[in-house]
Amino acid sequence: MNLVQKIEHWGDVHHAKWLDSIRIVLGLFILSKGLAFISDTDAQKDWIIQNSAFEFSGLMALALVHTVAFAHLVGGVLITLGLVTRFAAVIQIPILLGAVFFVNLTKGFSPLNSELWLSVLVLMLLILFWIVGSGPYSVDQWLKGSRGR
User: Which element (helix H / strand E) includes 72?
Assistant: First the structure.
């Protein structure tokens, strides 16, 4: 058993049922962020071009906005349902790292920067669900039960 399998097994054994409600709220929050991204792509694209530490053309910035929006929409649904939650969390982690270090830290590290704290909280929850997995109230658990019959 390699390290990843040991971590997955530990997470499956030690998953508290109340964590499923947090997983569902986290998934709905990520889904809502994806909807917010897709609802105003031009504003997001302009913000990326103006505030990025990297040089982006308009097309590259628009591709980035659509990629992040798609990842949030699909990842939010998967996390909410508890379907391949570890995979969905791993896909979200680089996006949240970018949000923390390249977007929110540029606004300053202060108690008033609520977006920074929210991004850090979501990042920590994604890492938690990457470790503990879907939980007992999830599609993954239902599929495990239906395969065992």
Answer: helix 58-81
Two tokens at 80? 């909410």
Rounded CA separation 130/66 (Å) = 24
SS3 for 83? coil
CB 52 within 8 A of CB 64: no
Angle of helix 19-39 relative to helix 114-132, nearest 10 degrees? 130
**Two tokens, residue 100:** 């923390």
DSSP 8-state code for residue 137:
S
Return the closest-CA partner of residue 30 out of 126, 103, 138, 117.
Answer: 126
Count Cβ atoms within 10 A of the Cβ of residue 42 and give its class: 0-12 exposed, 13-18 middle, 19 or more buried: exposed
Burial class of residue 129 (count of CB atoms within 10 Å of its CB; 0-12, 13-18, 19+):
buried
- pLDDT, block means (10 residues), the chain with 149 residues: 78 78 96 92 80 73 89 97 95 92 73 82 95 88 76
**Is this prediction's pTM over 0.85?**
no
